[in-house]
Amino acid sequence: MSEIKKKLTDYFRQQGELYPAEYFFDKMPGILRTPSSVSSENPNFISNFQRLDEEAKNCFACDLAQTRTNVVFGDGNPNTNLLFIGEAPGENEDLQGKAFVGRAGKLLDDLLKEIGLNRSHVYIANIVKCRPPANRQPVPAEVNACIHFLLHQIEFIQPRMIICLGLVAAKALLKLDLPLGRMRSQVFTFQGIDAMVTYHPAAILRNINLMEAAREDFKKIKQIYQENSGS
Ligand code: SF4
Predict the structure, then answer these.
(1) What is the DSSP string of 151-183?
(2) For residue 32, what is the DSSP state?
(3) Where do the domains of the chain lie, and which CATH numbers do they carry?
(4) Measured in angstroms, how far is the CA atom of residue 166 from the centroid of ligand 1?
(5) Range name among 26-35, 159-168, 181-190, 196-205 with the lowest pLDDT average
(6) Is the pTM of this model over 0.90?
C-alpha cells in the first residue's frame, strides 16, 4: 500500500471512530422522520408507544413469563423508517432487558455501521418479547400470544422497510416457509411495507462463513431502501 493510501485509510478509520455514522457521506438520507412529523400524524405517539412497552412488561399471557428475567420490548429509535425484527431475547438480552446486546448485538451494530447507520437510526424488536428457556425457538402458541405487541409496534412506527433477521421472524411475520437462501435479496411486502430477509446475527456467529452473505444483504437493503424511497 502506498504511503498516501495508507494515510488516507488511517484518516478515514480515525474519523469513523471519532464521529457517529450520521456524519458519514454514505448515510441513508430520510432514514429518520422528525419527531414533529410523527407526532403531527399521531399526537399520542410517544405515550402510546410507552404504554405498549408497559403493557408488555406486565404481560403473563404465555409460559415464557414464568422463566424470564426481563421483558425485552425493543431498542433504538421509533421515529425510524427502518425496522429490524429478530426472533426472541437471548440470555444477555433477558438479563439486561435490552434487545440485541452481547456478541450478536455487536455483530448487528457492525453490519449497520458498514451501511452508515447505528442504533439511533433504526428500531430493533423481536417476534416474542421474553426469552425461551435455553434459547430454543419460540413455539407457535408463544408466537401467537405475543405477536400483537409487534404488530402494534409496526403500526406505531410505520416503517418504510422491515428486515426479518432469520427464519423464525420471516415465518412468523411474512408467513414464508422457504429456505433462507431463497428469501435473501428478494423484496416481499407486509401490509404494504417492503420487507427483506437476512441471516440472524446469532446464526452468523455459529457459522462465520455467512458473514460475507450478510454484508451483501445489508448493502442490498440500503440499495433497495434508497431506490424505493427516492433518497
Ligand atoms: S412472550 Fe410475549 S406473550 Fe409471552 S409473556 Fe412475554 S410478552 Fe407476554
Answers:
(1) HHHHHHH--SEEEEESHHHHHHHH---S-HHHH
(2) B
(3) 44-226 (3.40.470.10)
(4) 20
(5) 26-35
(6) no
Q: Which three cell numbers stand for residue 46?
A: 410517544
Q: What span, in angstroms and rounded, lies between the C-alpha atoms of 31 and 104? A: 23
| Cell numbers found for residue 54 | 408497559
Residues 6+ apart with CB under 8 A from 204: 107, 210, 211, 214
Ligand 1 binding pocket includes 46 (Cβ within 6 Å): no
Cell of 59: 404481560
Grouping H, G, I as helix, E, B as strand and the rest as coil, residue 191 is coil
Closest CA to 200 of 113, 151, 144, 137: 137
Q: Which three cell numbers stand for residue 38?
A: 410523527
164 CB-near residues (< 8 Å, 6+ apart): 85, 170, 173, 174, 195, 196, 197, 198
Report the nearest-CA residue for atom 4 of ligand 1: 62
- Is 127's C-beta closer than 6 angstroms to any atom of ligand 1? no
Residues in the chain: 231
> Of 141 and 229, which is predicted with more confidence?
141
Distance CA 30, CA 47 (A): 24
Which of 57, 71, 139, 151 to probe ligand 1 with, by most ligand atoms within 8 A of CB? 71
41: its cell numbers:
400524524
- Atom from ligand 1 closest to the CA of residue 142: 4
DSSP class of residue 227? H
What pLDDT was estimated at residue 11?
44
Q: Which amino acid is at 194?
A: D
Q: In whole angstroms, give the CA distance from residue 190 to residue 167.
A: 15
